[in-house]
Amino acid sequence: MVAHSPRRPRSRARRRAIAALRMLAALVLAGGIYALVSPNAQANAPGQLSAAAQEGRALYETSCISCHANNGQGVEGRGPSLIGVGSAAVEFQVETGRMPAAAQGAQLERKPPQFNSDEARQLGQYIQELGGGPEIAFQGEQAPKGDIAHGGELFRVNCSSCHAFSAAGGALSSGKFAPSLEPSTDRQLYAAMLTGPQNMPVFGDNQMSPQDKYDVIAYVQNLKSDTDPGGWGLGRFGPVTEGVAIFLFGMVLLAFAALWIAGKS
Amino acid sequence: MSTGTGTGTGNGTGPTRFEVVRQGAREHDDVEIVHYEPQYPPGSKAEKRMTRIVSLMFMLSGLTAILFVLAYVWWPFTDWPSVDGWQYQPGNTASKGFTPILGLMLGLSLGFLGLGILTWGKKLLPHEIALQDRHDGGSDPAERALTGTTLQFIGEELGLARRPLLKVALAAPAAGLGAAALVVPVGMLIKDPHHPDVFFHTGWDPAANGGKKVRLVREDGVTAIRPEDISVGGQITAFPGIPEGNRNKHADSPVLLIRLRQDDAARLRENIKAYPTNAKFEKHPMVGDLVAYSKICTHAGCPASLYEQETNRLLCPCHQSQFLITDNAKPIFGPATQRLPMLPLELDEEGFLAAQGDFAVPVGPAFWEKPSERRDA
User: Fold this and answer.
1) Strand (E) or helix (H) holding B258
2) Residues A183, A185, A189, CA angle at the centre, nearest 5°?
3) Would you call A178 an interface residue with chain B, using a CB distance cutoff of 8 Å?
4) CB contact (8 A) between residue A227 and residue B92
């Protein structure tokens, strides 16, 4: 109506009414955007959580809340804030049994998980909806197909210094260690690269694209699918280890056999 | 003989072989055989049984040796013959059994042979006790005199005293070989096989790149790196972006590019101020929270690239040296005594990471002329 009417000076009351309407619209818009982007706004409104996140929240409030506090805020000196860590980190820590932690220590080790992988994903979903963060880029247990050769190149440059060429792990400082990748699933490998648990560096998507990560996963799983001649790989360190082993064990065995024969005659 | 071992000649006319042996041992070697007795009566059931056991062991030894040969010839140790070239097949394939079966068969064969011989000696040969007198003191004086005379005679026959030319001629090889033995160790202290500058320059030196600053690139040798490529708590191995920068020719150049957490980066910036070698670069050596250290351990040259992102340490896997990233890569554990050199970073006009210039100190382990700090520090 207004657009079609001929131009004439508006009355004061009308100008005021329009200004008030504009202000109201701006407030609603700002409030709406704030509600969309603010994690606290979501956190304080459990009604907006998805069904999976609701389940996760129930688990969280029985098993995680004593260290990580209400809504994942964290407790100084006990458990860090989980806002922004993302579902990938939660899934990794819970599925490998590192969380819930049994005790504080230099390094949390893999142990039998307390939650099954469905529950781990529900927990992840809850933390994801609380504060966002990195997520595993594929659904299901199997990572998409990767290029084993390229994955091998990436593994040797980025991973082998700590996890060894054979993915069997290695020592770090002060009793910490890079674990063996033997029990790791595709999802756990992906989440570990993406989030850098504990002392592991983070390999974000800008450095290693999801496809690069699939390549690394393909390489690691291929490496693990191989068997060792003779059945005992000795960490796959190669001929030097094997030589030392046969020298130490074989020679000692022979020496005792010789002593035994001499002692019997 | 009461022993009745069946070792005699059997015709009853002369002494038996055993008697000859016993007499000979007594007279020539002062050995007295005091007891000699077979373990089983000859021809008895027990003896035959033991003979069969020993024979069985030898048979098994021969059989396993033949299995070794058969396995060597016919066991599939690759997927040979293949149509399109051999490709390694991971998994539990028959070829994985090749070396174990060879080792097992040869081991069993030698084992059975050894056991057979042992059993033969232990069970089938007669028991014997022999005594020998111990001889004390030196040799017979006459014998000693004769040996001395022989040596003197050989010396005389060489005739060095009568033939002075030989004496002079022998001095030549003595002097020559002596010089040859000396020249190598002495020469190593004088002659430097390397170009004098080779240890002081790496691929990051702009002088070798036509004066242009060298970019940091990834392991493929071409992909330049932007600061946002590395996550907080992340690291990337960077090579100089020059021809063959990711090859052996520039094996001393790789650096570990690390993005620290904000407070750790602030601590490092404080510590750089206190360490002139890194403080005296043209511009500040860090870009944002990024820092780059040489990847070559200052102890023995291994890649010190085990990055612990929580403790901010770099570890070397060879001898467990540890460097504190937030304190100019100071060595805090292990045999390394020098810091990892820092590569001064900057952003070039296109927003890629580049090196301001070369390291301030030579990378890698110590050498004779290596300064531990920059010389103008």
Assistant:
1) strand B255-259
2) 100
3) yes
4) yes
- Nearest CA to A131 out of A60, A66, A209 is that of A60
CA distance linking residue A199 with residue A202, whole number of Å: 9
Confidence of residue B196 (pLDDT cuts 50, 70, 90): low
Contact status, residue B354 vs residue B215, Cβ threshold 8 Å: yes
Q: How far apart are the first and last CA of chain A?
A: 121
CB A119 within 8 A of CB A58: no
B87 at the A interface (CB within 8 A)? no
Residue A245 structural domain = 240-264
DSSP lists the bridge partners of residue B353 as B347
Q: What is the pLDDT of residues A17-50, one digit of tens each?
A: 888 888 878 777 776 666 555 555 444 455 588 8
Q: How many domains does chain A have?
A: 3
Q: Which two tokens stand for residue B258?
A: 């690390």
- Asked, as a colleague might, if the bond just before B341 is cis with ω within 30 of 0, I would say no
Chain B residues lying within 8 Å of A174, measured CB to CB: 311
A178 and A116 in one domain? no
Look up residue A27 and give its amino acid. L
Residue type, A226: D
Sole residue written with tokens 């072989």: B17
The strand pairing partners of B259, in sequence order, are: B290
What six digits make up the tokens of B263? Answer: 């407070």
Which residue shows structure tokens 């999976």?
A: A52
* pLDDT score of A186: 94
Q: Count H helices, E strands: chain A?
A: 12, 2
CB B334 within 8 A of CB B269: no
Least Cα separation, residue B92 to chain A (angstroms): 6
pTM beyond 0.95 = no
Question: B91 is written with which tokens?
Answer: 């998994």
pLDDT at A7: 54
Q: Which residues of A touch B296 (CB under 8 A)?
A: none
CA B232-B309-B262 angle, 5° bins: 45
The number of domains in chain B is: 3
CATH number at residue A194: 1.10.760.10
CB burial readout B299-333, b (16+ within 10 A) else e: beebbbbbbbbebbbbbbbeebbbbbbbbbbbbee
For residue A242, what are its two tokens? Answer: 């094997």
ipTM: 0.73
Q: In this structure, is residue B102 part of a structural domain?
A: yes
Determine the angle formed by the axes of helices B98-119 and B45-74, rounding to 10 degrees. 160
Domain range for B66: 38-132
**Amino acid at position B117, single letter:** I
Distance separating alpha carbons of residues B288 and B235, to the nearest angstrom: 14
